[in-house]
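In this section we walk through a basic example: taking a raw amino acid sequence and producing a predicted 3D structure, encoded as discrete structure tokens. The instruction is simple. Fold the sequence below.
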Amino acid sequence: MKDILEIIKPSKKESDKVKSITSLFIKKLNSKLKYAEAILGGSGAKGTWLSGDHDIDIFVLFDYKRYSAKSDQLSEILEPILKKVFPKIKIEKVHGSRDYFKTTYQNFNLEIVPILKINKAEQAINITDISPLHSRWVNKHDKKIKNEIRLIKQFCKANNLYGAESYISGFSGYVLEILTINYGSFEALLKASQKWGNKEIVDPSKFYTKKTALFHINNSKLQSPIIIVDPVDKNRNAAAALSNEKYLLFRKLAKEYLKKPSKNLFQKEIINLDKLNREAEQKKQNIVFLQLDALKGKEDVVGSKLLKVFNHLERKLTQFDIKRSGWRWKENKEENEAIMFFLLAKKELPKFELRAGPPLKMKEFVKDFKKKNKDAFQENGKIYAKIKNKNPKLEDFMKNLIRDDYVKERVKKIKEVIIF
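The resulting token sequence is shown next.
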């Protein structure tokens, strides 16, 4: 794993640059704050960030006694201060459970999040208030664990398992930090995953005995396949956003790695048209490749809309026999550009399709079916109709599909549709 770490662990030069720019931003902001303090947060504060990942979290901690009653006003209080301190840079407000801010400062992407300064989770009014407690918990452990955390983060990023946003439903950075610290290393975590049972409970702070956590955490937050009790908040399942699909994929890839360790499992697949074209030619398949501009807005919301579009296209294209499909977003310099692709066995549908009607015993529905389909016929105790395919050719089918309001309302623009 040494060679993987050499790639993903930030060099001293990179670390110093990030530290210098972040410190300068924080120093400037703190010079104008009163009864509040800006600090570094997220993986930057924990020292678990990956090389090249220059998305930095800045938390502005407001004094609890003075501002707890104004928790819903923190964004309004912070916004004019930010604009006064940094008048020449664009500061974007992002709506959330408590609004926060995004900006680019000396080519680094910053998120500035107003929170209340708390000492224990019970004081939190908004979930983001707990974030500095997460950093404190991670940092109290042996520094050697941080490289192990980097390995599991890269493993998950490479395989589209990283991120708790609803359009990903994977493992958050904090969840991976908890799991790695709990089991002691990257490989120990992978091995442990092979033994996880149904609703496995991981409770690093040992708040509960055996399965009693299930009786104390809100039932709506217990739908995930694994329950990870937040080590700083005993009432929270840190893995609540994890889907069963991503959980099973993680265990499958962990098994694959343990059987035969490979660098490939740490490398994200590069999706481009040339590569897909070669694959399609080799397998004698057809390609639908789309380039789209996403809408602007909160990442979770925009990503969810893109996922809905992908799922919609995938459902419609199923009749062309999909062999492989996927989508990517925010992987190019153009942050709002997304791509979607489908490898298909068929390029044309039959001119007519056989559509099954209602059961014969449902006489009123059968009557209605016959009325709509003049050529309806009965066979083996069922009723059918021969329906003409409006767009049997893939090119025509796609032209019609991308005009669908369901698609157009969820993307800014469909830049290009390529079909081979």
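Looking at the output, two observations stand out. The chain is about 35% helix and 20% strand. The two ends are 40 Å apart (CA to CA). In the next section we compare this with other chains.
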